[in-house]
């Protein structure tokens, strides 16, 4: 597993406002979208390109374009949905699949309640979106789900990660799967309720309100 922590003054500034408990939901949503765009610049660095012949108004030339097959963006509902708009702005030709997963806050078991993905992901570069990598349970389950469908190139874009979750990812994921993790920051630890410290609280609740 390859870890990339995006270190940039814009990301650091936006992240501080995002973490602040007094930041309202509308600002929180905008910041998540802006942060994912900055992260996406790094996260898409390995995308394969191919040559394409075009003509500018001045002369013919050979340019580059993203090579087929189309990349796949997969937000993990709910909180990952907050990252979808920003990611699609940078990768407008990608396809989008959905995975609904929820962490049982008592047992920390992962409940998969929805999926809308192609059966065959062979050869596709998948960008998995979820702002929080806490214990890593959700991300490991999501990666296994994608790998069962043939995905071998998986880039996870998270806003925050805990060291415990990164360690779990490192040991739990099949090494034949090429997993990259791009985060805006790695925080200190998890608390007794498996929340990231200092973190930003429950990302889904801050984006969309408290449902349960
Ligand atoms: O690394 P883990 O310990 O598995 O925790 C991280 C997961 O928890 C949050 O989702 P949550 O279960 O709260 O669902 P939600 O997005 O619907 O709020 C978050 O968006 C991750 O998916
Ligand atoms: O800190 C955390 C941990 C899991 N899920 C969240 O939304 N926040
Ligand atoms: Mg939540």
Summarize it:
The protein is α/β, with parallel strands linked by helices.
Summarize the structure in words.
The chain has one domain (2-51, 62-208): Rossmann fold, CATH 3.40.50. The chain is built from 6 helices and 15 strands. It has helices at residues 9-19, 25-43, 84-90, 137-148, 163-172, 203-208, and strands spanning 2-5, 49-55, 60-66, 72-77, 95-96, 98-103, 110-116, 125-129, 132-133, 153-157, 160-161, 178-183, 185-186, 189-190, 196-197. Helix 1 (9-19) runs antiparallel to helix 2 (25-43) and helix 2 runs parallel beside helix 3 (84-90). 1-O-pyrophosphono-5-O-phosphono-alpha-D-ribofuranose (PRP) binds next to strand 6, strand 9, helix 4 and helix 6.
Q: Give the total of beta strands.
A: 15
Amino-to-carboxy terminus distance:
34 Å
Contiguous runs where pLDDT drops below 50 for at least 5 residues? none
Q: Main beta sheet: strand number and arrangement? A: 8 strands, mixed
The CATH topology comes to Rossmann fold
- Mean pLDDT equals 96
**What's the order of the H and E elements?**
EHHEEEHEEEEEHEEHEEEEH
Helix count from the secondary structure assignment:
6
Bound molecules: 1-O-pyrophosphono-5-O-phosphono-alpha-D-ribofuranose, uracil, magnesium ion
Helix content: 25-40%
| CATH class annotation | Alpha Beta
